[in-house]
Fold each of these.
Amino acid sequence: MDDLLKKIKESCSCLNKRTSMRPKIAIVLGTGLGSFAEKISVKDAIPYSEIPGFRTSTVQGHSGKLLFGTLEGIEVMAMQGRLHYYEGYSMQEITFPVRVMKEFGIRVLMVSNAAGGLNPEYIPGDVMIIKDHINLFPEHPLHGPNIEELGVRFPDMSNAYDKKLIAYSDEIDKKFDMGLKKGVYVGTQGPTFETLSEYRYFRIIGGDSCGMSTVPEVIVANHAGLSVFGVSVISNVGVDANLSNVTHEEVQQNTLLAQDKLALLFTEMVKKCSNDF
Ligand code: HPA
C-alpha cells in the first residue's frame, strides 16, 4: 500500500479510538478565529501532537487541537488552528488532516481564514463568502503520482466552493440581515504581507481577498470529493487609499470584529447541512 494511504489509515484509526463521535461536518478555524470553538460543546479534544502524521502549528493564534463535539446538538469536528506552507511544511503535510477527515467520514468541509481585503468596498471585520479562488502558491498539493484511492488525476474545480452551500449562506444572510460579502480569494505563500503593487495585481486578476492558506486544503478536499464552504474574515485592507502598516497582531485583533457573525453563520450552515445527510 502507498505510504500516504497507510499514514491516513493509521491516523484515522487513532481518531476512531480517541472519540466515539462520527461527525459528517468539519470546520477549519483560521487565524484569530479559534475562539469560535467556545460555541462547540466539546466532548473530545485531541492535540495534533498526539495524532500520527499530524504536524503542529507554529503560529501564534493557532492552538493545534482537533475538537469533537456538538453545535446545536449536531456533531461536528473542528481544527482549532491549521498548518501553513510558510511554516516550512510540505503541501502534503498541510493537507494531510483533510485526507484524514475524509477517511473518517466527513462529507462537508467548512474553512475560514483571516484575509487582506482587495475589494475597495471592504472594511476590516467584513465576512466574505468565498465563491472561488486563484491559486498562486508555488507548488501544487496534487503534484506527483496520483493515488487513485484518494481521487482522480485531473479533478474538476468548477464547483470548488459548493454552489448549494453558497446558496444556503445567501438564505442565512437574508434571514439575519448579515451584510455578507461574496468574492474570490487569492492564495499566496507568504509569509510577507503584500506590497501595494502586489495588492493591486491581485485585484486586477480578479481577487477580492488574499491570504496565505485555504487553497491547498480546498484543492485536496475537492480531490477527495468533499463539499467545501469557505469564508474570509477581512482583517486589513490593501487598497491604495487605506494601505497602512499590517501586523499579525492587527490581523488577529480585527478578526475579533467578526467573531459573532462568523459564529452565527457557521452555526446556521451546520444546521442546514445536517438536513442533507
Ligand atoms: N495578505 C496576506 N495574508 C493575509 C493578509 C494580507 O493582507 N491579511 C491576513 N492574512
Amino acid sequence: MGHQTLAETTKSGQSESKTANTKKLFIKTYGCQMNVYDSERMRDVLAPVGYTPVDSPDGADLVVLNTCHIREKAAEKVYSELGRIRKLKEKSGGKMKVAVAGCVAQAEGEEIMRRAPVVDLVLGPQSYHKLPEMIARVSRKLGERLETDFDTQEKFDLMPQTRTVDGPTAFLTIQEGCDKFCTFCVVPYTRGAEFSRPVDQIVAEARSLVAQGVREITLLGQNVNAYHGAAPKLEADESWGLGQLIKHLAKIGGLDRLRYTTSHPRDMDDALIEVHRDEPALMPYLHLPLQAGSDRILKAMNRDHTYAEFKKLVAKIRAAKPELALSSDFIVGFPGESELDFKRTLEAVEEIGFASSFSFKYSPRPGTPGAAMPGQVPEDVKSERLARLQKLLTAQQLAFNQSLIGKTLSVLIEGTGRGENELFGRAPYLQGTHFIGDENLIGNIVSVEITDAGQNSLRGILSDG
Ligand code: SAH
Ligand code: SF4
Ligand code: F3S
C-alpha cells in the first residue's frame, strides 16, 4: 500500500481463465489510493459480464487507464502510455477496446478524444457503474463515448455490494469529492462536491471484505475526516462523523486494524482525536498535510488555518496519543513564495517532526486559481527548495525508523518478501517490514523485534509473543 504516492500499480486478481467467452481486462492505475480502490471496483463491475484481469495489455480485450491529474507530470503519462497502447491495438486488428478513466478523463475528456483516436471511451470517476453499458454501446458503435456526470451517490448505489479481495488489507472509499478549493488543487473539479456514503453501506462493504479474510481496512476520502454519512437506519435523520464510524467498524469481529486518509487539518475534531486515544484498532499513524509553514502562503493556498493553529492541533493529538506518528504533504514554490516563506516551511518541519512525508514542486493546473496568480516561481528555484526540504524530511524519516530498533512491533503479514523464506508486512506506523518466517503465516498479525531500519523499511526477527 503505497501511501499517498503517485505510484503506478498494475494488479490482477485471479489467474487467466481459458473459457471461450472470457474476455481479458487490463487496468493500469495512476494516482492516489482512491484510484486503486476505483480500479478494484471496475474489476468487480466487469466480472459479471465476463472480464478477467490480466497482467499485460498485450492481447487484452479491454485496456483501462485509470488516470491522475494532480500534477502536470502525472497527467502527461496518459498520452505517452496511449502511444504504446495504440501499437497493441493495431496488432489486435482493432479488436482491443481502450478506455480512459479517472481524473484526466474528467478534466480533459474532450481533449483526449481529439488527441488520441485510439481511445474508444472516456469516463470520469463517477461513471464506473456504467462501464458494461458503455462497452456495449461502443461495440455497437452507438451513442456517446464520453461520460463525465457527477452523481457520486448513484455510483455507490449501483456498484456491486460485494468485493473481490487481494490479500489481508483493503481500501474502502467512504467519502469522495472536495468542497475546500485549495487554490493549487484540481480535485474539487475532477471528483466533484463532497459526498459521504451512508454508514450502513460502508458496514456492508467492510463485512464483505472481512468475510474474505481482510484484517486491515484503510478508509479513503479526499477529505476523509469531513465524513458525515447518514447514520444507520435505526437512528434515522442523524449523520455520523468519522470518529463514530471508526468506533462502529472496530466492533466487526476479525477487523483488527483501521486507518484513514487523507485528512484536512480543519476537520480534525475532538471526537476523532478521542478515538485515536481510545480505540486500539485505529493505528497510531496520521497523515495530515501541512503544505507550507508560512501563514501568507497558507492563506494564498486557501488552506483556512495558520501554522500556529496546525501546531496547536498537533499538540492536542499528541497529548491524546503520544506514540502516534505523523506524516504530511508539502508543496514548494507556490506562487509568491519567497525564500523567507520557504524557510518557514523548513522551520515548521524542524519544529513538528514527521515520521514520513511527501513533498512536491508546485505544478500549475489549468483552471485552478493558483495557475493565474502572479509571482510564479522559476523551475530552478523550486528544484533547489525541494532538494533542501527533502534532505530534512528524509533525515527525519530515517531517524524515526531507527528509533524503532529494539522495539517489538505488531506486523500484519501481507505476503512474501524478495529474499529466501522472507515475509513482508506493515508495522503500525505503515513502514514495510521484512523478516524470516513461514509462508503459512500470511494474513496473520505477528510480533516482530526490529533489528534494522532504513529510509523506507524495517527489518526484524519474529518474536514469540
Ligand atoms: N486532500 C488532500 C490532498 C490530496 S492531493 C489534502 O487536503 O491535503 C495530494 C497532495 O498532492 C497534496 O497534499 C499536495 O501536497 C499535492 N498537490 C496537490 N496539487 C498540487 C499541485 N498543483 N502541485 C503540486 N503538488 C500538488
Ligand atoms: Fe485538494 Fe484542498 Fe480538497 Fe485536499 S482539501 S483535495 S488539497 S482542494
Ligand atoms: Fe490524482 Fe485524482 Fe487522486 S487527480 S491524486 S487520481 S483524486
